[in-house]
């Protein structure tokens, strides 16, 4: 007897990140597609993990995270954002930011609830909404600067709106919020009773002297928000999968109910190492300059090319138009670029639910200088 299985995610297949990375490996291409560094994390951090293992920190950590790490997160948040998050009731360590995003959505979205999503967006948002029975409502960011059209956001708000997902610095565009964005969101929050999920994993990658404008800097927003951060992004340790979520106590209670059945706890020696390494504030305080240098180097290397670089104010992603090279759709162009030019990228249309194609691709510049130079040499030959 055959078994009939109805997929809960019928439109989801292998992610574009896996597809392009596999294509890059197959063709020996330089991989500027998936968002991870090709350089290592600080050696002192590796040593701290080894010390934690040798000290016997190899069993389950508390489900909400070890107290030392939560206390350090609280201290850092107070210093950078002027917001006190109680380490026992408002901070939860998670197995990566993607887990935190899923847990937050699952905690508050009921079947039939609407969730506003600003597109283009990170690809985990919509599946998490749909698995919770929610209805994604899409609001496109303005092209080509990817700014928020707040009037359009307000037009999409209804009595069914449970959650608004925001992301700054923004993946994939590299756009960052301005003070007026916080002001507009605050205005809307005073008129409508929605919750906020703020994806701030690139918080320490904001360039040109701009500050990171966290939701946590506005008390009226912080009291109704889940704010998600990533140690993987900040410390070049994406493979460790350690993130955290800050939320007011009533939201954290619901968040932890979901979290405990997703991963229960996060790798113990990594938590001890990060707690100790957070003493080294200079790492995250100098990260904007570190990545700005890479952004500027990559931009200068591509100046002779036919690519048109769009503004990048944050993250480690650079968008580029390719209309002077090809009129192919962005997915086809990205595949061609990987196979023929030997550089793997991500087509931006995959970040839209309807595949909107502006003829734009995304490069990741979180790479060694020699990697960027080798990639640029190939790209400038087109």
UniProtKB/TrEMBL annotation:
Stored InterPro entries: Aminotransferase_I/II_large (IPR004839), Kynurenine-oxoglutarate_AT (IPR051326), PyrdxlP-dep_Trfase (IPR015424), PyrdxlP-dep_Trfase_major (IPR015421), PyrdxlP-dep_Trfase_small (IPR015422)
Gene3D superfamilies attached to this UniProt entry: Aspartate Aminotransferase, domain 1 (3.90.1150.10), Type I PLP-dependent aspartate aminotransferase-like (Major domain) (3.40.640.10)
Required co-factors: pyridoxal 5'-phosphate
Residue ranges annotated for the Aminotransferase class I/classII large domain, each copy included: 30-379
GO cellular component: cytoplasm
Keywords tagged on the record: Aminotransferase, Pyridoxal phosphate, Transferase
GO terms assigned for molecular function: kynurenine-oxoglutarate transaminase activity; pyridoxal phosphate binding
Entry's family note: Belongs to the class-I pyridoxal-phosphate-dependent aminotransferase family.
Protein's name in the database: Pyridoxal phosphate-dependent aminotransferase
